[in-house]
Design brief:
Length: 517
């Protein structure tokens, strides 16, 4: 199944077209930044300054599900670089490395140059990849590592020995530290390697199965175990607190179904052509199992299906950046399936199918980019500049170093204020999780129940109406509104227009009101 890497002028032109297309999409949203970006920067800042991989100094909470990214930022930023600019630059670099890795994967997997070219151009137009590449988040790095692992696993088109599987485990172990979804990919590849140690269906010796399995596990362990040891010492636990915080709330079949539909919409919006090709031409994939590494294909296909299922079952919010690492594989195999649609038929018909499929794929992504990504990123960035960024800077200039700030969006407030944060979402304040299981955000804030997890000097609230707590909470006498602004919600899992308000809290008055129950 291995194809000779194409070097024709058409392939070179397609590669440069893909680079230009991807660069153009990035440039159009170059200022985009999310509050979650600043969460990474806060961890990176404290790591760089010798205070550990923590959000609040002196409070070791395992709140990062993507520790590789702040570690990289903290180490590279030791020379005093602006961490926000560094994060965006490194994320863009990772995005282009992912594009190069897709080019390598496509030229290895496809038999025909034109289908490899189409796969690369289709991936370059991916609206979600463009969005998250400019955000300064970890997602582009995870995508690049997933594709790098696929390229190593493919090798020359035949199953490799333990050494190759070790290297794949290493790369996907790094990917797991960049995005936790890749941890499932490592597990699936290790299991598939034990089932198909020589890459093809059929009998294999028990020793060969064990060796193949352990090669993947040991490769991942080289990077995962040191971090796990660090986490055990630093935090006293291996699991990030964010899993409990994000998984709090409603569960059940209705929630699972709703989350699966949402995941389908996210993937279908940018990969409908490739998903349709994979589903409609699924019988064609038996050829890959006959000629190639069955373990690789079984692992990545299972992973692509299981990631959204796991999110839905766990009741976790589904965002495009959580699903993005599986999308290049959907694109890659989708174009392989399209290539094998009436493979024997040459000439005009095949070219029509190719051009139509690529046109539809690129057009769908450009539409998503123009209709969803550009307006959302513009409003989101403007909202950050109206609220959390200036408020964080104000807190840094006008509050004591010991001040505690309660907020549902912790990134920019924590990074710019350099003050301790009480996280109303529970990500870095585990004591909030039990409260979140009993009441929704509005009830939690209006009732001041968050004081059970900490006694803040300032509170940032988001909700319908400016300074709404002054009329909706019995604790209004304890509050002094300092600033308000209307914007799109800066919580990506809770979109919609809301009002943000910054309050000063008089704790003595709050104690008096709380005692009047």
């Amino acid at each position: 199944m291995s194809a000779r890497p194409p070097t024709s002028p058409g392939t070179v032109a397609a590669f440069w077209l893909a680079i230009a297309l991807f660069a153009g999409l990035l440039f159009g949203i170059r200022d985009y930044v999310t509050d979650d970006t600043f969460i990474h920067l806060q961890f990176a800042k404290h790591l760089r300054d010798g205070q550990g991989l923590v959000f609040n100094t002196g409070d070791p909470v395992p709140a990062s599900t993507s520790p590789l990214w702040p570690i990289v930022l903290g180490l590279v930023g030791e020379g005093g670089a602006d961490l926000l600019r560094l994060a965006k630059a490194l994320s863009v670099l990772a995005g282009f490395l992912a594009l190069a890795a897709m080019f390598a994967a496509a030229t290895k997997l496809m038999l025909r140059e034109e289908h490899a070219q189409a796969a690369v151009v289709a991936w370059a137009s991916n609206a979600w990849m463009a969005r998250w590449t400019v955000s300064g988040m970890e997602t582009a790095l995870a995508v690049a590592l997933v594709l790098a692992g696929w390229n190593v696993a493919w090798g020359d088109g035949r199953a490799g020995g333990p050494g190759r599987r070790f290297r794949v485990g290493f790369l996907w172990g790094l990917a797991a530290l960049a995005r936790p979804e890749a941890g499932l990919l490592v597990a699936l590849y290790a299991a598939a390697s034990a089932f198909w140690p020589d890459g093809a269906p059929g009998g294999a010796r028990t020793g060969q199965r064990i060796t193949s399995f352990l090669a993947v596990v040991f490769g991942a362990a080289v990077v995962v175990v040191p971090y796990a040891a660090f986490a055990a010492i630093q935090y006293g636990t291996l699991l990030p607190s964010t899993l409990a915080a994000k998984g709090s709330g409603a569960h059940g079949l209705e929630v699972i179904a709703r989350q699966l539909v949402l995941a389908g919409k996210i993937v279908g919006a940018v990969c409908a052509v490739e998903v349709a090709a994979c589903v409609l031409l699924a019988p064609r994939f038996r050829h890959l199992f006959r000629h190639g590494d069955s373990a690789l294909h079984a692992a990545v296909w299972s992973w692509a299906v299981l990631v959204p299922v796991v999110y839905a079952v766990r009741g976790l919010p589904v965002l495009s950046r959580y699903l993005l690492p599986i999308l290049p594989l959907v694109v890659l195999y989708g174009w392989w399936a399209l290539e094998h649609f009436r493979l024997s038929r040459e000439g005009r018909f095949r070219r029509i199918v190719l051009v139509a499929a690529l046109g539809l794929s690129v057009a769908a992504n450009v539409a998503v980019y123009r209709i969803q990504v550009v307006p959302h990123t513009s409003e989101f960035t403007a909202g950050m500049e109206r609220t959390l960024v200036p408020w964080g800077k104000w807190l840094a200039a006008h509050t004591s170093r010991e001040a505690l700030v309660a907020t549902p969006d912790i990134g920019a407030i924590g990074y710019y204020s350099d003050r301790r944060v009480l996280d109303l979402g529970g990500l870095v304040t585990p004591g909030m999780v039990a409260l979140m299981d009993r009441m929704d955000y509005d009830e939690l804030v209006k009732s001041f129940a968050f004081r059970l997890a900490g006694r803040p000097d300032y509170v940032v609230d988001r909700g319908p109406g400016p300074a709404r707590l002054m009329t909706e909470s019995r604790f209004a006498p304890t509050l002094t509104p300092l600033a308000t602004a209307r914007t799109q919600s800066l919580a990506m899992a809770k979109p919609g227009a809301v009002d943000y308000t910054l309050y000063r809290v008089n704790e003595a008055v709050a104690d008096s009101i709380a005692g009047q129950r």
